[in-house]
Amino acid sequence: MSALPHCPTCSSEFTYDDGLQFVCPECGHEWSKEAADNSAEESESVRDANGNPLADGDSVTVIKDLKVKGSSLVVKVGTKVKSIRLVDGDHDIDCKIDGVGAMKLKSDFVKKA
């Protein structure tokens, strides 16, 4: 299987190496290999809304009211979430919130406690 990075614009997996840069055949986006190396290093660390690095087992505090999709519940500002787990994907935090249950959160809406 190919070890080439996915396209940063359209997330296509069909990128190819064109000498000094990578090219996406689906959207036509081109980016340098140095940019791909830098983005890989940045994506390895998940950061909260203030830029602090997060790790598995950390406690975080919600900084914005979050509506729970498919429910009438709301996670209020200031809710403390203990023992987070970092996962890959758009919602990069897996956790359990008292009164709500298991949830996935974006790191943009939390700060390290």
Automatic annotation (TrEMBL):
Residues 46-113 form the Protein YjdM C-terminal domain. NCBIfam families: phnA. Belongs to the YjdM family. Residues 4-32 form the Protein YjdM N-terminal domain. This is Alkylphosphonate utilization protein. Residues 34-56 are annotated as: Disordered.
